[in-house]
Amino acid sequence: MHKINSKPLLNDNVDVTKPVRMCCVCRRRHNKPDLIRLVTCALNFSDDNTEQKGVALKIDEKGNLGGRGAYICKNIDCINLAQQKRALNRAFKCNITNLDDIIDDLTQITIEP
Questions:
Q1: How far apart, in whole angstroms, are the C-alpha atoms of residue 34 and residue 75?
Q2: How does DSSP assign 16-62, residue by residue?
Q3: Rounded Cα distance, 53 and 44, in Å
Q4: Contacts of 28 by beta carbon, 8 Å cutoff, 6+ apart
Q5: For the structural domain made of 20-109, what CATH number should be given?
Q6: Per residue in 7-18, is it b (16+ CB within 10 Å) or e — as a string?
Q7: Predicted TM-score of the model (pTM)
Q8: Tell me: the pLDDT tens digits for 54-105?
Q9: Is there a contact between 78 and 72 (Cβ–Cβ < 8 Å)?
Q10: CA distance 46 to 48
Q11: 51 in Cβ contact with 44 (< 8 Å)
């Protein structure tokens, strides 16, 4: 039987002397500045006398917002795959209310492969 290597893959241009983070979609490791950080923020809102609670995502441009965070590549393929696989819901372990808006914002930031 062959052993499956469960270690996340390092990208070729990763400098291990700097902070390294893993993309929650492709599971590859990149240097921290090469990734986009997303953070959860709780929402409490009421519509027609019914109080609803949810979780929304926010893009953390400076990397200093508090809360649970996840990283995603600045790659359009990774963004599309995140939407198809619902990888952000899995990374944050909850249903995200503004997922479509975040995907649109991320596609504006990303680069083509």
A1: 10
A2: TTS-EEEBTTT--EEEGGGEEEEEEEEEEEEETTEEEEEEEEEEESS
A3: 5
A4: 8, 9, 10, 11, 22, 73
A5: 3.30.1230.10
A6: eeeeeeeeeeee
A7: 0.78
A8: 688 899 988 888 888 999 999 899 999 998 988 998 998 888 888 889 999 9
A9: yes
A10: 7
A11: yes
